[in-house]
């Protein structure tokens, strides 16, 4: 009887040790599977985070120099919207004794679409520029006509300030990673409705910009 009881204990002990060893050796993959699943769930969310971009631009529809900002609706491609603030200067000096000097400050809301899954994109867009233009007109009082005359006199009614508007498109290449250095280059077809506060005809304007996406 004692031998049977001892054998029973020995068998139970052996089974317990085997079960304990199995529990120690067998890896617990439940947490790894949960972590992997969490990453798979989070990855699309990270990819859909809207990418924003800030660019300093030379020429283009905003003016000689401008600052441009835009954001995607989601991810780093597809539809987006933004705008720019620009500055420009225009002056003339003719042989009839007139000298004009005007500055332009512009605000340009726009929308665009980026094609391409990687950081190299093809950009199509469009928008409208509203500009405040201010300056003055000077003329020669006496002496021979021409830009080398004795001097300019500014009459009291030659200072001018007015608003202007025009429409533009955007066709170009954009380098835009999820985060880092960015670049824009292309052509901006610009047109207006004519009259005293818009441009006449069609004018293609090149642009080049460098910035940062985040």
Overview of this protein structure:
This protein is an alpha+beta fold and 214 residues long. The chain contains 2 helices and 9 strands, in the order H-H-E-E-E-E-E-E-E-E-E. It has helices at 2-25, 30-47; strands at 52-59, 65-72, 78-93, 98-115, 120-140, 152-153, 159-175, 180-191, 202-213. The protein has an 8-stranded antiparallel β-barrel with strand order 1-2-3-4-5-7-8-9. Strand 1 (52-59) and strand 2 form a beta hairpin. The longest helix has 24 residues, at 2-25. It starts with a helix and ends with a strand.
Write the topology of this structure.
Blueprint: H1 2-25, H2 30-47, E1 52-59, E2 65-72, E3 78-93, E4 98-115, E5 120-140, E6 152-153, E7 159-175, E8 180-191, E9 202-213
Antiparallel strand pairs: 1-2, 1-9, 2-3, 3-4, 4-5, 5-6, 5-7, 7-8, 8-9
Sheet with most strands: strand arrangement: 1-2-3-4-5-7-8-9
How much helix is in the residues?
10-25%
Structural class: alpha+beta
Major sheet details: 8 strands, antiparallel, barrel
- Model regions low in confidence, pLDDT < 50 over at least 5 residues: 1-27, 29-45, 142-146
Query: What is the approximate shape?
Result: elongated
Helix count from the secondary structure assignment: 2
Bin the strand percentage: over 45%
């Amino acid at each position: 009887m004692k031998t049977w009881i001892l054998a029973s204990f020995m068998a139970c002990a052996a089974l317990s040790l085997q079960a304990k060893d199995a529990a120690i050796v067998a890896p617990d993959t439940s947490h790894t599977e949960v972590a992997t699943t969490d990453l798979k769930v989070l990855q699309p969310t990270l990819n859909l985070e809207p990418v924003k971009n800030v660019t300093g631009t030379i020429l283009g529809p905003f003016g000689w120099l401008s600052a441009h900002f835009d954001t995607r609706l989601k991810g780093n491609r597809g539809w987006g919207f933004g705008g720019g603030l620009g500055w420009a200067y225009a002056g003339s000096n003719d042989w009839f004794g007139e000298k004009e000097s005007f500055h332009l400050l512009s605000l340009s809301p726009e929308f665009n679409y980026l094609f391409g899954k990687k950081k190299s994109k093809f950009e199509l867009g469009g928008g409208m520029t509203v500009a405040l233009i201010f300056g003055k007109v000077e003329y020669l009082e006496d002496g021979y006509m021409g830009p080398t005359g004795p001097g300019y006199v500014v009459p009291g009614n030659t200072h001018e300030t007015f608003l202007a508007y025009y429409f533009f498109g955007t066709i170009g290449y954009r380098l835009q990673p999820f985060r880092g250095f960015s670049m824009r280059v292309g052509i901006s077809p610009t047109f207006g409705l004519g009259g005293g506060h818009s441009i006449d005809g069609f004018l293609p304007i090149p642009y080049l910009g460098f910035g940062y996406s985040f």
